[in-house]
Amino acid sequence: MDDTCRIVSSPSKMHKIAQQWTLTEQSIGVVATMGCLHKGHLSLIEEARKRTQKTVVSIFVNPLQFGQNEDLDTYPKPFERDLELCKKAGVDVIFHPKAVDLYPSSFQTKVDGGLLTKKYCGRTRPGHFNGVLTAVHILFELMKPTLAFFGEKDFQQSFLIKQMCRDLRLPTEILTMPIIREANGLAMSSRNTYLCPEQQETAACLFHAILSVQNAVKNGYTKTSELLSLTASLINHTPGMQLDYAHFVDLKTLLPLGDNINTSARLLLAAYIGDNPRVRLIDNGLISV
Questions:
Q1: 134 neighbors 110 (Cβ within 8 angstroms)
Q2: Tens digits of per-residue pLDDT, 193-206?
């Protein structure tokens, strides 16, 4: 275990550390998280350590990205466990600020990511992505990452963060890494901790729906309406599951595809499972033609 991992809560101290690293031309890799770390996060940390000289993991449950009746108050926060995982992974600094430190009482300015923030997950969670972008922009200003690593599970989020960096001329390069899955195919997520073992098996239907669509496209079925009907049927006919949305999107624009899949695309999914709590899960998969 590497006990040199530092916990920093002060934004000004984090900024000072990052400036010192930058001045000595040390590259900085950042993994921005809300904690409750799992193997998906650890794969990002491993990649950051391979590609950069200093690794920072932010652990910040961002209130701006939670809407009414969402799980801000109950979101899992096993910080001591996260700390041990970061130490074992060789993280240099854990940035663990309080909300009041990033959003003081005078705070007014937010990042608006445009029309794409209102589609897909943004339709169900209004304001969510602008809250994410605002937090990530602040974190990037403080941590000065050369590279920042995000998982493909949050495909829309990664797309919007890349767009923000491009539009606002931020110097950070965003790298998206493959989804890490459980043995049954369920995409790893901090919210999986809400699920009992039986529900975790049930929720794997998202991945199996993606596999079914990929197989159908390989066999020549390209009509998007039929493929989306197949997806909805597979998920909604799984006891305990309710589809929120399914969309095929263009890889370059994230806009919905037309009537047929004639180029590689991404199938984005979100669905609910359970009643108390009602848990919303997301997944996606590459559709190749």
A1: yes
A2: 999 999 999 999 99
In a domain, 184, yes or no: no
- The per-residue pLDDT for 170 is 98
Q: Are residues 37 and 120 in the same domain?
A: yes
Amino acid, single-letter form, for residue 132: V
Quick: pLDDT tens for 237-246. Answer: 999 999 999 9
CA 180 vs CA 73, 75, 236, 239: distances in Å: 26, 21, 24, 25
195 C-beta neighbours (distance < 10 Å), count: 19
Domain edge (last residue) among 122, 148, 177? 177
| CA distances (Å), origin 59, targets 36, 39, 135 | 9, 15, 12
Per the prediction, the chain carries an average pLDDT of 96
For residue 79, the domain's CATH number is: 3.40.50.620
The whole-angstrom distance between residue 46's C-alpha and the CA centroid of its chain comes to: 17
Please tell me whether residues 113 and 252 are part of one structural domain: no
Residue 185 lies in a domain: no
Same domain, residue pair 171 and 222: no
Residue 41 appears among annotated catalytic residues: yes
Give me the catalytic one of 41, 128, 137, 247.
Answer: 41
Angle in degrees, 0-180, between the axes of helices 155-167 and 128-143, rounded to the nearest 10: 60
Does 182 map to a domain? no
Structural domain span for residue 94: 6-177
3-state secondary structure of 91: coil
